Amino acid sequence: MAPASFGNRLNMLTSAFFLALTALFFQGVFVPIMAILAFSPFLALTIMSSPFQKALLLSVFSGVMMDLFSSGPIGIHALNYLGVCLFLYRFKKHFLYEHPLHVSLFTLLVSLCSTLLALPLLFLFDKGIPFNGRCVGTDLIGMPVVDALYAFAWFLSPITVFRYFTKAWRMFWLKRKNRSPISP
Q1: What pLDDT, on the 0 to 100 scale, is given for residue 1?
Q2: Under 8 Å between Cβ of 23 and 35
């Protein structure tokens, strides 16, 4: 698959941002118990497809959006997402943002790093977290897997379907314009 042009990447990131906002809204309204990281697939796509400065800016912006809709200390999500972007940007060369499996795996890494970085940040802001053995299994193993599945179902499936239909539509019109003399 050929790399996407700047316009396609911008459209992909814009649609991913609005999908993340929609998921954040649905999570808050319908399923407040489910603790998915709504912006983790957007962060994964941003890190994988953007230059360093733009990835940092978009990660802080998505963290600010999370801070506006959360009850935690203001700025904690922005710092968290900035730290995740700083740490994971060097690993982006091992993943391709055009492949859904790569984006899902990178979303798993984003979710895991965000959870690990949230622990010291919450203690820095004097927010204690009750620690028990179950949280290691659920927060460090289970939730990143759920976030990867969420990225595949909510982000990558619509984007892949849109790319397929766009490509089919272009091929239809190209074939229609360039008819050979043999075709009726």
Answers
A1: 38
A2: no
Could you tell me if 146 and 128 are in contact, meaning their C-beta atoms sit under 8 angstroms apart?
A: no
| The model's pTM | 0.79
**Which stretch, 14-23, 42-51, 140-149, has highest mean pLDDT?**
42-51
- Rounded Cα distance between 25 and 41, Å, is 15
Burial class (CB within 10 angstroms; exposed 0-12, middle 13-18, buried 19+) of 118: buried
On the question of pLDDT at 11 being above 60, the answer is yes
Give kind and range of the element (H or E) at residue 5: none
**What ranges in the chain are assigned the alpha helix state H?**
6-29, 40-49, 52-68, 76-88, 100-124, 133-137, 143-150, 157-177
> Which residue in 53, 107, 109, 106 sits closest to 82, CA to CA?
53
pLDDT in tens, 107-154: 999 999 998 888 888 777 766 666 666 667 777 778 888 888 888 888
CA 85 to chain centre: 12
134: CB partners within 8 A, 6+ apart: none
As given in the structure block, the two tokens for residue 20 are 């993340």
